[in-house]
Amino acid sequence: MEIPTDREIRALHRDHAPTRSSFELVHEHCQVVCSLASQFFPGLDIDTDLVRAGALLHDIGVYRLESTAYVRHGVLGHALLSSLGFPVEICRFASCHTGVGITRDDVVRQALPIPVDDYLPRTPEEELVLYADKFHSKRQPPVFLTGDTYAAEVARFGAGKVARFAELRARYGEPTLGQPVI
Description:
53% helix, mainly alpha
């Protein structure tokens, strides 16, 4: 599998961002997630180049949202990457990073506007990108989130999601965060 370079990924972001400000927001977020994920590399048996590319591409679907529900950005990103000829191993970073993973039951129970399926990480690389993503928000202005802050946010989706995030925290630990932090 050929993994795109940082330069190629940046060009994809630039080509698909509807505005300069959306490019700056999303691409910077993806760079931050990549940096956070790299903090966990020591001691892990993973494909670090694949994690880098996945982290840099995981939110590419945000550019296709227009006014649709935010939860759709993952499947939109997967579809975009697939349409560009990327292998499924790259596309899945877009579709399986939302929350702590979305199950088929979540889609049905919450009537989510995405195809009924499981959107869960299947590889350590996918899981690491999902986890690193929890510590940075594209809010305006962007902020870093502590593990406790994210745990409180994910609680609205149920105890199972809080438990899943706790498992990830126990497995990977906490990254060193930049500023500002909430």
